[in-house]
Amino acid sequence: MLFVFTCLAGLVLGLAPPAFSTHGASALKNPAVSENFYGVDIIDHQAWIVGYYGTILHSSDRGKSWEVQSSPTQSSLFNVRFVSPLKGWIGGSYGTVLHTIDGGKNWRAQPVGTTEHLFAADWLEETHGWLVGSRGTTVRTEDGGRSWSASTLPGDFTFSGIKFISATRGWMVGEFGVIFQTKDGGKSWVKQKSPVEVSFSSGASQNLFALLFTARTEGYAFGLDGLVLKTRDGSRWEIIRQRESANSAGATDHLFAAAVFNGRIFVVGERGTLLQSDPDTGNWRQVDLQIPRLSLNGIAIGKDGFGLTVGNRGLVLRTEDGGKTWKRLKIDPQLKTRNAFPLP
Question: 12-21, long-range: CB within 8 Å, 24+ apart, which pairs?
Fold first, then answer.
């Protein structure tokens, strides 16, 4: 019944549910290149990847070579966001929040008033930031992390997606298909009507994992069994994609993260799912990838079309043309500065 917590517990504890399997005891041997990656961010020609066992990877040359940045934690890290080329934030398990002001040369842990797992985050410029996670937890800052406010929403929901379009208006989604909206910067939240919400007592699983807004009031939510919701006004949500024929590749695989480039939406999920939307027809298709059927957990595409998607067991895909083609990267575990080579 609590499918979302089971999946996300795998992120935190290294458990092995179908959506987030790990690679056994190899985490202690070389977690930087062989374990699960959960989050990725791109700013200009730089990129950062975060994952299991406190892993932080950095590339300064569009993913051609990589280095492991020193991490002050061994907690799982789920999300990374840089608000400038030097200033960045990472959220993770057990209330972990890391901050850098020098591009990741030095990361410092910052207490934010919670020990709950922080599965998702969003930032506006350098001042306003929000993180959400387990047991209804939300934390926010309005002064660039100098101070934080933590609160808990009733209902014991696990939240796994959050997005703001301004310093005051935002949304978050999570367990049981719930959607919440705020109009005061996260000080208070109001539940919106979700077409897929189910009650705790129903025993059903209908969870939303990610949010993406392509305009101020046009947004998408992604979730269980290939589900996609859309809003055109920020208030009313409708189902635009749901469980299809089980014979269709990727039709019922769970969707975990999304990005947009030149009007096309890219969504990643379990079993190597990478969907691309057609802005003209609204249809979705599975991108042809020659990769193992491992979960893809995070995706980011920069302004010039350089993009990365990351997943389980060190899986990394790279695009240089805005998602038209993707190539798998293999990060060499033997080098101090870890080089990445496209696989044939």
Answer: 12/75, 12/76, 12/93, 12/94, 12/117, 13/76, 14/52, 14/76, 18/270, 19/254, 19/256, 19/270, 19/295, 20/295, 20/297, 20/312, 21/294, 21/295, 21/312, 21/313
Residue 4 is given by DSSP the state H
- Three-state SS at 185: coil
Q: What is the pLDDT of residue 330?
A: 84
pLDDT at 247: 42
Task: Enter the DSSP assignment of 3.
Answer: H
pLDDT of residue 206: 86
Residue type, 63: G
CA of 155: how far to CAs of 191, 251, 252, 290, in Å?
Answer: 11, 31, 28, 42
Tokens of 196: 């897929």
Distance of CA 204 to the CA centre of its chain: 24
Q: Note whether 208 and 198 are within 8 A (CB).
A: no
For residue 199, the model assigns a pLDDT of: 85
pTM of the model: 0.89
Report the pLDDT value the prediction gives residue 132, as an integer from 0 to 100: 98
Q: Could you tell me if 47 and 338 are in contact, meaning their C-beta atoms sit under 8 angstroms apart?
A: no
CB 168 within 8 A of CB 185: yes
Query: Would you state the structure tokens that stand for residue 137, as one six-digit string?
Result: 């937890």
CB 122 within 8 A of CB 213: no
Parts of the chain with a pLDDT under 70: 1-32, 244-251, 333-344
CA distances from 115 to 19, 134, 150, 248 (A): 24, 10, 10, 41
Q: Is 144 helix (H, G, I), strand (E, B) or coil?
A: coil
Domains detected in the chain: 3-342 (2.130.10.10)
What's the CA gap between 258 and 264, in Å, rounded? 10
| Three-class DSSP category at 24 | helix
**Two tokens, residue 26:** 């190899």
Here the tokens at position 124 are 């506006």
